[in-house]
Specification:
The chain has 130 residues and is α+β, with helices and mostly antiparallel strands. 21% of the residues lie in helices and 41% in strands. It is built from three helices and nine strands; from the N terminus they run βαβββαβαββββ. The two termini are 30 Å apart. It comes from Planomonospora venezuelensis.
């Protein structure tokens, strides 16, 4: 058993794809036409970290309730965690790509950490070895 996908609600597909593939280095896994439950067109967009693992379904907000959730999926808490082998290199690359870090890198008992915002405004931990 494994978690295959999680959903991040975004304002629009293409800026989200650009952020995850460009700034974070994820790989596009799928971008297919689809339909909402009531038959309106949408896209099924999945990105994954290099080498696979749990993917992210980038879901364009549909309706006022979903638009209100953009950037607030976990009520302002860090809700997503990106673990890397080389923290300093990943932090440099992400900073150069324009990723907004809201904390400076620091060392905790569980490793190096810095909090950044995704394209929707959700908080993520960038995590690496101590």
């Amino acid at each position: 058993m494994r978690i295959d996908l999680i959903t991040i609600v975004v304002d629009d597909y293409d800026p989200a794809i650009a952020f995850f593939t460009g700034a974070l280095g994820f790989e596009p896994a799928e971008d297919s036409p689809s339909l909402t439950n009531d038959g309106r067109p949408k896209r099924w967009v999945v990105v994954r970290p290099p080498g696979g693992g749990t993917g992210i379904l980038l879901a364009r907000a549909d309706g006022e309730r979903q638009r209100a959730a953009v950037g607030e999926q976990v009520a302002g808490r860090v809700g997503f965690f990106l673990r890397v082998d080389d923290f300093e290199a990943a932090h440099r690359q992400m900073t150069a790509a324009g990723v907004e870090f809201v904390t400076a890198p620091r060392t905790e008992p569980y490793g190096r950490i810095a909090v950044f915002l995704d394209v929707a405004g959700n908080r993520w931990d960038l995590l690496g070895p101590a």
